[in-house]
Design goal:
mainly beta, four-stranded antiparallel beta sheet, about 130 residues, 1 helix
Length: about 130
């Protein structure tokens, strides 16, 4: 399991996360996530799948399949592959890259930090309302 105060920067070369100022947002406690699997979080209107692998790592990817408007957090996790339940596309939670058809476009990834058991996901500052800044 990822130790407290550990930073696990799992953002891939992704235009959403790498070309914008990122702001960490507290999403949940680590013990609120499934031991292995995904949970959906809504971060200022951005649906994000928070994925906890059997190795104890935590990743965050866009929760919407790039092939169809379907929640990825409802799919099955096998290793680091999250499967879209509707058509069977698989996405690598470390990079967002699809590894099976019909999806051909990657999904966005977001850096994850865990501090004192709290899971933080860094999202573009543009998502955060001015009243929260």
């Amino acid at each position: 399991m990822t130790p407290d105060h550990a930073t696990t920067d799992h953002a891939a070369a992704d235009p959403v996360t790498n070309q914008a100022e990122l702001v960490p947002v507290a999403v949940c406690r680590l013990d609120e996530l499934p031991d292995v699997g995904a949970a959906k979080a809504d971060i200022y209107g951005q649906p994000v799948a928070i994925v906890h692998t059997e190795d104890g790592d935590v990743y965050a990817i866009d929760d919407i399949c790039s092939h169809a408007n379907v929640s990825l957090s409802e799919g099955e996790l096998e290793g680091c592959q999250l499967e879209c339940w509707l058509h069977g596309s698989r996405f690598d939670v470390r990079t967002g890259a699809p590894s099976g058809l019909p999806a051909t476009e990657p999904v966005a990834t977001f850096p994850v930090t865990i501090e004192d058991g709290e899971v933080f996901v860094s999202v573009p500052a543009s998502l955060i309302p001015d009243s929260e800044k």
